[in-house]
Task: inverse folding
């Protein structure tokens, strides 16, 4: 069942989103070669947040570990959730570790642009398919692929609510967007093919072909006008680093 949020509920989510945005910024600034993914998790522990850390070919759900050391040239996706006053917000960013190769740099840039396009399509009277089509158009236009096994989602009282928000689709298809709908838009983009597999830990999802993947995400609210990004800093434009 799709839950439409009141103005009061959206303001609560926006307060949680501000905490989340600040956490994302701190983690981005902290990433450096030689640190472990547990080091990042400890930084997030200072906030009401929990994180996943996914390196290189890992798409999502990488588990922080003292054994996972970040190396020069890696990329690390950090997926973070906050619960404040009973309401969730969700955000993700992919961060370079030191100097990265040109293909990885372009992967990050394209995935950010895809998120911005998806957000811009999240207007009242559009449909879920418009979001997916916008994301897919940017990604495939750049020669990369979108992950189809994993999708964005509604969010609020539950961390995962209806509707699902795929990163592919056709315009004017699927659920119609209404003011008060809160969703997490999260392009997951692969350098190679879109296929995935799950590691033996039954949690971490990686690219089937071993190529790199990037992940950016914002929680947004559909309004009567432009979509409202709930997990961005007040001074930050839509689609900026730290999605």
Result:
């Amino acid at each position: 069942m799709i839950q439409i949020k009141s103005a009061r509920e959206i303001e609560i989510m926006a307060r949680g989103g501000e905490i989340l945005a600040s956490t994302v910024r701190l983690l981005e600034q902290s990433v450096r070669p030689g640190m472990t993914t547990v080091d990042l998790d400890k930084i997030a522990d200072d906030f009401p947040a929990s994180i996943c850390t996914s390196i290189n070919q890992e798409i999502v759900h990488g588990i922080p570990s003292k054994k996972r050391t970040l190396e020069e040239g890696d990329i690390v996706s950090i997926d973070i959730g906050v619960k404040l006053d009973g309401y969730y917000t969700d955000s993700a960013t992919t961060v370079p570790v030191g100097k990265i190769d040109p293909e990885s740099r372009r992967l990050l840039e394209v995935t950010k642009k895809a998120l911005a396009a998806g957000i811009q399509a999240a207007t009242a009277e559009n449909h879920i398919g418009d979001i997916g089509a916008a994301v897919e158009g940017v990604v495939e236009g750049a020669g990369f692929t979108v992950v189809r096994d994993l999708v964005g989602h509604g969010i609020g009282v539950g961390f995962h609510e209806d509707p699902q928000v795929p990163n592919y689709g056709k315009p004017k298809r699927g659920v119609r967007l209404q003011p008060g709908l809160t969703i997490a838009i999260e392009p997951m983009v692969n350098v190679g093919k879109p296929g995935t597999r799950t590691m033996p830990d039954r949690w971490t999802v990686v690219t089937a072909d071993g190529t790199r993947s990037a992940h950016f995400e914002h929680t947004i609210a559909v309004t009567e006008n432009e979509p409202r990004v709930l997990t961005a800093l007040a001074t930050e434009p839509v689609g900026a680093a730290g999605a």
Summary: The chain has a mean pLDDT of 95. Residues 7-30 form the longest helix (24 residues).
